[in-house]
Amino acid sequence: MNQRDLIYLIEKALLRRAELFNDGDSNCFRIFNGLADGLDGLAIDYYDGHILIQYFTQVAMSSLMEIVKSLDVVFAKNKLTIKSILAKNRNVKTDDAGNSFWRSTIIDGTYNEEAGLVVKQNGCLAKVDLFNGQSTGIFLDMREVRKSLGQFYREKKIESMANLFCYTALFSVHAIKSGLKRSINVDLSKSVLRRAKDNYLLNKIDVDDRDFIFGDALKWVKIFAKKNTVFDFLIFDPPTFARGKKSQFSVRSDYKKSLEIIGDIIPEGYILTSVNSHFVTKREYMSYHPEKWELLMFTNESSDFINTKAPYLKVGLWKVRL
C-alpha cells in the first residue's frame, strides 16, 4: 500500500478516536484496528505518546516503513507528539529453541526497554511493557468495561472481591480506587503477580502479600468454599486456553462447570464474566451461565476496537441467584 493511501487511512482512524486524546482518565487506546480501519493485519496502539505497531500479515509487514512515515505525517498535522514507535511481528511466535519470540523493534524515538513505562487507564496507573511478550500488561479493550463498573461499585457498596486469573490486577486497582476495601488476586503466573503488586504501589495501594495468591484459580475457589470465605464481587476473566504443570483450562470444556462452583463463594453477590474469542458466540457465552443468574449488563470490546466482524469480547455483569 502506498504512503498516500496509508496517510488517508491513519488520519481517518485517528479522527474516529479524536476524543480519546483529550480523555483525562486514560492515555492509552487503539488508534488503528485492522480491516475495520482499512488494512487487514495491522493494529496500532497509543500509550501516552509511545506507539506500538503490531502486524499479523505479510501485507502489513511489507508496508511497515510506509506506516511509520505516515504516522509521523498524520501526528504532526494534528499537532500530536510521538515519543517513540515500536513494531512487533505477530507472525513469528517462537524461535528455533521454542522460546517466546514476541519482541518489538524500536523504529523511532526513545523507549527504555528495560524500564517500560507507566500509563493511565480509567484513572488508574499501570506499568506496561511494549517491548517484551505478547501482552503489554494492560488490556486496552477493557477500558469501557472498567469505566462502567466504577459507579456500580459505589452504588452496591461492594467491599470484597476475588479476582480470578487476575493478570496484572487492574480490575482490582480500579475497584479499590472506586471504594472497594480488599481484593484477593489469584493467578498461575508469579511474574504477573509481581506486576500486579507494582500496579498497587503505583496507585498508592498498600500491598499485603496475602492478597496475591499464586496457583490454580479454580482450585482456590474450592479452598475458599471449604473455608466459608465469601465475596461481594468476583471477576472471572480466564484466558481462552491455559496450561499449568498439573492442570489446564479451556473455555469450551471448562467455563460452564467453573461457574457452577463459583456461586458457592458469592452467594449474595455479583460476578463479571468474560470470554475473549471470535469462536464463542454471544449465545454460547450466555449458555455457560446458570439459569437463575440475572444478567445486569452485557457489553463488548471498547469502541476504539472497531470491527467488521461480530465482536470477539463478550462481557456480562451478573447477579448471582442460588
Q: What does this entry look like structurally?
A:
This protein has 322 residues and is α/β, with parallel strands linked by helices. It has helices spanning 3-16, 58-62, 64-77, 143-156, 170-177, 190-202, 217-226, 251-262, 282-287; strands at 28-33, 42-47, 50-55, 84-89, 104-109, 117-121, 124-128, 160-164, 182-187, 212-214, 233-236, 241-243, 248-250, 270-276, 294-299, 313-319. The strands form 4 sheets. Strands 10-9-8-11-14-16-15 form a 7-stranded mixed sheet, sandwiched between helices. Strands 1-2-3-4-5 form a 5-stranded mixed sheet. α1 (3-16) crosses α3 (64-77). The longest helix has 14 residues, at 3-16. The chain is globular and about 60 Å long.
Q: Helix fraction?
A: 25-40%
Q: Rg from C-alpha positions? A: 20 Å
Q: Low-confidence parts lasting 5 or more residues at pLDDT below 50? A: none
N-end to C-end Cα span: 56 Å
Query: SSE string, helix = H, strand = E?
Result: HEEEHHEEEEHEHEHEHEEEHEHEE
What is the strand content?
25-35%
Report the principal-axis shape.
globular
Number of helices: 9
Structural class: alpha/beta
Order of neighbouring strands in the sheet with most strands: 10-9-8-11-14-16-15
Largest sheet: 7 strands, mixed
Q: What is the overall pLDDT average?
A: 93
Number of beta strands: 16
